[in-house]
Write a structure and sequence with these properties.
89 residues, mainly alpha, 4 helices
């Protein structure tokens, strides 16, 4: 496989469109290991704002929040949760 270089023949830095084209060519020839690495990098770069909850998930959260507001003391402390989880291991 040809080495990936972000410099053109004149040794000047390429712009985004040229880099994008080169990456597309590179991805088309890359092995599975490299594809998985690149995908992991892209996933890590995604911001939370890029993710939107489904309507179903929003309804579940709204229901749980309403239940908490109706009875705030009904939940468990972090210490209680840790103890409960550790007892199940």
């Amino acid at each position: 496989m040809k080495a990936l270089s972000l410099h053109n023949k004149k040794n000047a830095i390429m712009g985004t469109p040229q880099i994008r084209e080169l990456l597309h060519e590179y991805i088309n020839k890359a092995d599975e290991r490299l594809i998985n690495l690149m995908y992991a990098m892209a996933q890590a770069d995604m911001k939370e704002v890029d993710y939107e909850l489904s309507t179903t998930h929003k309804k579940i959260l709204d229901k749980r929040l309403a239940a908490h507001k109706a009875n705030p003391s009904s939940g468990s402390s972090w210490e209680e949760v840790k103890t409960r989880v550790r007892s199940q291991l």
